[in-house]
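Let us work through a complete example step by step.
Step 1: write down the sequence.
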Amino acid sequence: MMLFYDFIFIFLILSGLWSFVFKRKHLLSTLLSLEFIVLSLFFYIFFVLLSYFELYFLMYFLTLGVCEGVLGLGILVSMIRSHGNDYFSSFNMLQC
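Step 2: predict the structure and record it as tokens.
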């Protein structure tokens, strides 16, 4: 039964990676696929660590996941304020 769950988690992570690689028109869709990958990894780590009763590591993982999401949203907001859209084609115009 555990092998079945492993295949489900691998499928979730690979589908998140597929959407990250092939759906790159908008920055928001890329950020959503990254959050889906983080959520899939969180559930996988939760089920693995549940048998060991060591769930403190999940707090560190969630903290890093939240920091990643906040940084992505900050970049999204600054890009929308400066360019008015969230297209990846606008990235070549970014010059500091």
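Step 3: interpret the result. The radius of gyration is 17 Å.
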